[in-house]
Every structure is written in C-alpha cells, then in structure tokens.
Amino acid sequence: MPESTTGVTRNHASHYADVHVLLRRGDEILVSRRRQQQVFPGMWQIPAGLMEEREPARAAAAREFTEETSATVDPEHLRFVHLMHHVSTGSGTRRIAFFFETDRWTGSIRNPEPEKCEGWEWRKPTCLPHPLPPYLAVAIQHIADGIPYSEYAWPE
Length: 156
Fold this sequence. Notes:
Blueprint: E1 16-25, E2 28-34, E3 44-45, E4 48-50, H1 57-69, E5 79-87, E6 94-102, E7 117-123, H2 134-144, E8 149-152
Parallel strand pairs: 1-6, 5-8
Antiparallel strand pairs: 1-2, 1-4, 2-3, 2-7, 5-6
C-alpha cells in the first residue's frame, strides 16, 4: 500500500480486479453456463477471471481466456470497451471489472475446465440465456450502448 507522507492516516481502498473477454463471431458472443461454483452457480458467463499480482489487465484477460477456452488471443487485439466499479452481489466483495472485446483468436474453443463450466456456446447479445450474473447483464447492456464506465450495487 502507498505510504502517507503527510502524517495523515488514511484507509486506502482494496479491490479485486476482474478481467472479461467478449469474444465476437459475427453478431454472436461466446458464453458458458457455470457449474455449481461458489459464486453465481448455474449462471451464464463470458470468459473471465481475476488479475494476478503484477499483471496488466489485457495480459490477464488473454491468460484467463486461454485457461478457460484453450484458444489464444493476443493482448494487443483486445479492445477496451467498459470499466465497472461494483460490489459483487455473489460474494459482497468490491471489484473493478475490465471488459475487453475481440473477434480475433487462434486455436479451437474447447472446455479445459469441465468442473467449472458446461461448455461454450455462441449467442447473440440480444438473446443471451438466463440467468446472467446481474453485474454482467448490466455491463453487456452498457457495452451495447457505448457507455465506457459504470458503477453497480454500491450501498447508498
């Protein structure tokens, strides 16, 4: 954590950082239904995960994408489309969620984590299966509307 040089004690915010990849194929995006995980069990999700220590957001997104699909994406081909500052309705943790999109990948989309997801499907963003994690549904709508930043589920 940064140190205070003014002699004033502060509490600095601590957040998880998520990365998400909207992989596009024509007018469809890649989604998967989560198995009975601790957070958002049985809900539909896009390739996503947590950033690791000392890892830039696009590199983290590319790594998570490969871990979850077996395919690869060049971080340089990931275009930033949204940032959401939210409180997870699944875990209650504070999060900063980076959303990137691309239509360029190499390799075949597979399911290397069958214990975590049921497999990958292509769906139109306007006809996504339900349920989605609430924050994700809001973020996908904001992305469609061209809104680059949002806040979600903060207590009043």
